[in-house]
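Q: Joint fold for the lines below.
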Amino acid sequence: MAITLTQLLDKMFAGDEVAVARLMTLVEREGKEVGPILEALAPRLGNAFTIGITGPPGAGKSSLVDHLAALIRKAGKTVGVVAIDPSSPFTGGALLGDRIRMSQHYLDKGVFIRSMATRGSHGGLARATKDVIKLLDAFGRDYVLVETVGVGQTELDVMGTTDTVLVAVVPEAGDGVQVMKAGLMEIADIFVVNKADRDGAARMQTELSLMLELKYSNRPAAEADRPLWRIPVLPTQALTGVGLKELFQAIETHHQFLIESGELGRRRKARRREELLSRVEYEVRRRLTIKSRTDTAFAHFLEEVSEGKIDPQTASTKILESSVLRE
Amino acid sequence: MAITLTQLLDKMFAGDEVAVARLMTLVEREGKEVGPILEALAPRLGNAFTIGITGPPGAGKSSLVDHLAALIRKAGKTVGVVAIDPSSPFTGGALLGDRIRMSQHYLDKGVFIRSMATRGSHGGLARATKDVIKLLDAFGRDYVLVETVGVGQTELDVMGTTDTVLVAVVPEAGDGVQVMKAGLMEIADIFVVNKADRDGAARMQTELSLMLELKYSNRPAAEADRPLWRIPVLPTQALTGVGLKELFQAIETHHQFLIESGELGRRRKARRREELLSRVEYEVRRRLTIKSRTDTAFAHFLEEVSEGKIDPQTASTKILESSVLRE
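A: Joint structure:
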């Protein structure tokens, strides 16, 4: 390319938005550049406060993100937005409809928006998302908002990389038990009952609060000496902006709590360790996939596994005891 | 233990249900027995027809599974049911409320039910579920029904291991775009619009059908010469059983299609290959976790990663080039 990676990185560190976007594309493509990029970012990480926003489809997450971005800007801070959109089976591209709403920020250099497609997942998306968050952090954004649709392993992985997790639900989502079944109770730092003008909103809020009380009273003994964060359950109407200031305030309060309790450091340490493990896993898959195309003996071995002649468990042990994984 | 693994396997092959349940517990615990168990199962696999049932929380999947199990029994066939229940943050156990409904099958030896908790996931659940399905297959079940809640990476992984995927939605789930956003369009072989007596059911059916037409007309060129399966969109009322016979018929029709088109073989081959890759990934994580407890030099290295002194990408490469992964 006409520009070297070092030049691109320098441009980004100098505040060039086009350079950030190009670097994001590089980490999404998962090429050889990822390693050097991450190495270059490493000394500049940890200044952004990252906020994850998740919940079932239709919970109004995009509107919440939109308002939060505006409030962050009003507070004189910069923001990066990462939105994970499932890819369409028709075009292979992302469904960007929701993002059109963000167009009020289009001319504001203090808001950087990136949509990620979920195409070709397998941990790849979660990993690429983490790298994009790092790029925004190293780019100097004060806040990074990460929006995911639904709650599955990828979403949980992504939420696991943010400092504060906001879970949005709507009265129609069913009752508190459904929220619990979806695993949302475990990850929420703040609950938002959006579309709070609808039937059942008050009941939803009460149910969530009761279930949270139950959660506190069943706290594991190992955590008993750590300060307890009481998860707020906030009503909002994201379309009209009702309750959004209170929500932003709650996020700031949680931020303070994380710092003062030492929890922020603990979370970030655990996160880096987890990131290492998942990167090794990913690299293993990548190397095996390449080997299957370039090494005929290994390709033959894989074919025997595909045909059921060698069971996957035995094959896995063989691979780990061999030197196949070394490059 | 008083009984050896070989004896346990022999008991299972002789039809002992208690032995199957104990073997399931062993694969869930992910101990040393997993390898030998899978090796023993390998020659007995591939006879069960596996059906995945997924969709958003509240779509009535448990009721659908319940009815399908009854219809399979009526057809004189045996069935195994694997239900993935998210674990409760309170007890660490599975939420088994929905399963109580299955009690009509309690005394029927032709129905074997297993609930899996989602606790401590990270691919572990998907892998354990695949092993449990294999146990039911090797146990001689004609059908295996696998029910998952929600749609995330784990659910997609699990659905990827079944022969037919049934996606259940309800009119309240929003519109077809939401279904598409949740990635359900890509995995469905059969759509069920459950609670079809509610408002919006007809509209939901029409929308899904239209989106499917769009999908067919945008078929990748590479698949153009393969026979096309036209995904049915079936209305059901699982609580009362309306539409269930038609659903079972559609499953049987898809089964025939898979066999006649050669797609069944193709899917199973791809599945075994994928299983190998994910087993290697899992084993890598397991070995590193053990090493972090037993090898002080490696523990120190991990600590430096946790503190941000070594970036995860560099550390990952170092691990793969070392002999840390060998046991």
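Q: Anything notable?
A: Chain A touches chain B through 82 residues (CB under 8 Å). Residues 263-294 of chain A form the longest helix (32 residues).
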